Amino acid sequence: MRNVLQDILNKKDAVSKTAAALKADDKLRLLAFDNTAQANIITMVSNGKIIMVNKAASKLLGYSKKELLTKSRSTIFNIKESSFKKMLQQRTAQGNAVATVTVFKKNGKTITCQITSAVFVNEDGKSVDYDALGKSQQFEGYIQKTKILNQVK
Q1: Which of 33, 47, 81, 112 has a CA that sits 20 to 30 A from residue 16's CA?
Q2: Same structural domain for residues 82 and 119?
Q3: Residue 42 half-sphere exposure, CB side, CA atoms within 13 Å?
Q4: pLDDT truncated to tens, each residue of the chain (153 aa)?
Q5: pTM of the predicted model, to two decimals?
Q6: Residue 6: domain span
Q7: Distance CA 66, CA 84 (A)
């Protein structure tokens, strides 16, 4: 009987250590997501609602994280643009896609970014869309102009 109890305690301890390791792993992934220099946005596929953003996305778009979480995909992407529509078609067919798209900033200005988009299923069984925004050549030019203007000031 003592051996059975010891086995149960050992298994319980192993499960607790595994759960703690998974929680630590989740925390590490969340820190990486939030602190990367690349703008990352996660939306619900079904309705386009933004459910997660990182600091870089907030900075790029000019919204606070709290503001972005009240927005949808159509607030920040030109969803009527042909390149965006093609990206969605490719993502649907292949699970992921890359395209150059127009992004709307809070101040009303638009910028051109490269989007890498992938769909996955979250722990609730719902499809979510992960979008990473990178610099396109036009966006790179925008950054250079901004740096030059800031040096002149």
Answers
A1: 33
A2: yes
A3: 15
A4: 666 556 555 555 655 555 555 566 777 777 777 888 888 899 998 899 999 999 999 999 999 999 999 999 999 999 999 999 999 999 989 988 989 999 999 999 999 989 989 888 888 888 888 888 876 544 444 445 544 554 544
A5: 0.70
A6: 1-35
A7: 25
Considering the domain architecture, whether residues 137 and 102 belong to the same structural domain is answered as yes
Rounded to whole angstroms, the Cα distance separating 83 from 95 reads 17
State the burial class of residue 17 (Cβ atoms within 10 Å of its Cβ: 0-12, 13-18, 19+): exposed
Tell the residue number behind the tokens 């992934």, with chain if given: 29
Domains of the chain: total:
2
Give me the residue label for tokens 């809070």. Answer: 106
